[in-house]
Amino acid sequence: MIQRPDVLRAIIDNAPIGIWLLASDGHLQFVNRTWCEWVGIPEREFLAAAHYSSLYDPATAARCMASDAEALARDGMHVSHETVRFADGRRHDLEIVKLRLTEPAGGVAGLIGLCLDVTERRATEERLRLLAGVFASAQEGIVICDPEGAIVDVNPSFTRITGWPREEVLGQNPRLLGSGRHRPEFFQEMWASLFTQGRWANEIWNRRKDGTIYPEWLGITAVRDDEGRIARFVGVFSDITRLKRQEEELQRLAHHDALTGLPNRVLLADRMGQAIALTRRTGKLLAVAYLDLDAFKPVNDRFGHDRGDALLQEIARRLVATLRSGDTVARLGGDEFVLLLPDLESIEECEVALGRVLLAVPQPVALPGTAETVKVSASVGVSIYPHDETDPDELLRHADQAMYQAKREGRNRYHLFDPVHDVRVRARRARVERLREALAQGEFVLHYQPKVNLRSGRFLGVEGLARWRHPQRGLLPPAEFLPDLDGTDVEIAFGEWAIGSALAQLETWRGQGLDTVACINVCGRHLLSEGFVAQLQRLFAAHPALGPGHLQLEVLESVALADLFHAGDVLDTCRRLGVSFAIDDFGTGYSSLTYLRRLPVDVLKIDSSFVLNMLHDPGDLVIVDGVVALAEAFGRSVVAEGVETAQHGLALLRLGCEVAQGYGIARPMPAEEVPAWVVRWRPDPSWVNVDPHPWTAADFPLLVGEQQHLDWLDQLLAWARAPERASAPPLDEQSCPIGRWVYGAGRLRHGHRAEFAEVEQRHAAIHRHARELAGRVPLAAGELASEEAALRARCLEFLERLRALQRAVARLTGPGEPERAGPG
């Protein structure tokens, strides 16, 4: 039976807070297990020390003793906050409460200390403050509604645009803003889009509190909870009154047909460009329909041009009424019209719309001033983008050609134009068959790119990358053939080959004394195909010397998002077999937090494009830092692709990313070269002693300033050599990339530092030299060589000072910062 003191001790030891008891002479009388595990100091060392502060560095000890003295000097709780590095290597925000203990006679017996880890709470509070700031400062109006449509919150811009105070609209329905200009079908389409697609955006007319009607661009998003139910509707809108007036004036003057009021050829070209751009973004279809009235000329000849014009006006009205609000009806002249139908889900949807047009056009038309009615039919030719992937003029020409085919087929008909479809299909089919043949004949091979720890130099594994040993064209990279495999049955067979080849090579290496892990890319169709897990098991069975832990599969983030739950089930099953998973090219697609929360992946691979450019662009550096933080927050490992230089590796280490691959480490190599490379490999000396530092985004320009300054100098010299072929860089010291930081956030944050003053002085001197040189451009060859040498010498001095400032900023907590810290 557990004794009462044992129960109390167990409760205290396992409490999720640090607890300690300090005698008035400075000896620790008690410290619980939680605190010992947090700071990495055994209980016996705490209790054996003459004073617990002797376990810490002098700075930490001084803070601890000062805090203790303040707590001993008065009754009540003494609360302080500290940032402490725990045994896990991370810094934690702590809230520390100390309470003086007194003896019955009134003397001071000691202190009891309680320590709560508030790291996550503070991070959450900061995120909430950030979101609240965005909400309050947004220039667009924002309205949030519950699932029943009642307003639960609006931002200040909502009041500024609509005139409605927040307190008067809370609990109201947004219908109070309605202008009455829209038909019920408009809102039916809106709600249908929200419930089926989760979003809707369009122009809409609304009414301010004072009754003024105005146009706005409104986007609405349906926010769903974890169970898929709609929890909120969020609307973001902006007043587009001025833009609308300008648009209407331009249309009136130059973009509309004088007879029908429809868009003319000029506006049609603009609308076609917009529709093609929309189609590229959404992946849907655009139909361009060329419509010609049959037997219009006899009507014109018999009844005159005025009545012929009236007929055209009525046909124009019918076409507009028949199509959707987002479609375009244009008149090219005479009896020829063009219909633009963007954002189509399928060709069948286009056919349904054209069917309505062909029913509406032949209805009788009463001619004004007569008792006569006339009927005309229509012939329609259609080209579909991107099936007919060409420019707007060609799309229109193809639709025109198809219209003549419709006329040959009979009245009130339409014809789809696709002149190259069969040619393209046959060409791709031939390429796919050649790839199938290449796979059967063993023409593919895997090259392997090493993955290493930049700091320790430890070899961690390889990524297998396919190459085609083409009999005539030589060794081809994957970009030459993988796109043709997309969506074919050969794609799955290729994936099976790649996994099997990698396992066979791992088995060979293991026999040579190299036991490692291989990463293989797997496509979405393969991962989600029936029997994927069983096929993996068969491949492992064929290589009994290996365990599943030797294989890691990489998937693009868009793959799993296409079928989140199915992909999650497959990944779960494979991980139970010991196969790990990585998200490849993270950050280039959806980068969904749902992805990270739901899917059992082990590794995030930062896309090489961000790593390659992060030394030139602080924005890309922010993205890399964000991915590293996301990986840490979700308990995932992170690997950086695209390390090409020592500077890339150095920047990654400063951001806390140690694992990487890239040409700066090793290019993909044949399998037989890998063991020797592993023996030879050593990390760059600059990587070994770099400590990760929690750089803030405000100081990221300092990290990339070296490369940006070199880029600036190269641009200056190129301009000085050939001013007619190159443009001058910013010559003012406050306008170049590093200068904007120096005279902005840099001066505010670090202007008190001597190192910063050195940077500022030398940076200004370089720009003075550059401005003086600019006054003499173009320079003779000899003079330019002398100026280049002088500028590069100044540049080296500046970069030395810049690196000194980097080191100073990295020591913000002061020299001698302890690796483990006490309670403080």
Can you put this structure into words, describing what you see?
By secondary structure, the chain is of the alpha+beta class. It is built from 31 helices and 26 strands. The two termini are 38 Å apart.
**How big a fraction of the residues is strand?**
15-25%
Helix content: 40-55%
Biggest sheet overview: 8 strands, mixed, barrel
Major sheet strand order = 18-19-21-22-23-24-25-26
Molecular shape: globular
Compute the separation of the termini in Å. 38 Å
How many E strands?
26
Helix run count:
31
Which structural class matches the secondary elements? alpha+beta
The overall pLDDT, averaged over residues, is 85
Extract low-pLDDT stretches.
813-824
- The Cα radius of gyration reads 35 Å
